[in-house]
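During the reporting period the student researcher (J.K.) took over the structure-prediction task from the postdoctoral fellow and processed the backlog of single-chain submissions. One of the processed entries is reproduced below for the supervisory committee.
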Amino acid sequence: MTLSPQDQKSMLLQTDEEFRQLADKHRELEHRLSELAHKPYLSEPEQVEELTIKKRKLQLKDRMEDIMRRFAGSSGAQALSA
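J.K. obtained the following C-alpha cells:
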C-alpha cells in the first residue's frame, strides 16, 4: 500500500523544510490573487501582478510536485506505507 498524495503532502509539510516554505509561499500568493479577484477593476500594474503571481504559483506547484515524486519514489515513503 502506498501513501495517498494528500498523506504525502501532510508528511512533507511536517518533515521537509523546503516543501513547507514552498507551500507557505503558494498560500500567500493564493491569498493575494483572491484579493485581486475581489476588485471590480484592476489597474494595469495589478493586471501585471496577477499574471506574475499566477506564473510564480505554477513554478511553486511544479517544485512541490517534484518533491512529492521524489518522496514517493524514496525507500522511506515505501517503508512508511508498508
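The committee noted the following: Helices lie at 5-15, 17-37, 44-73, 75-81.
J.K. will present the remaining backlog at the next meeting.
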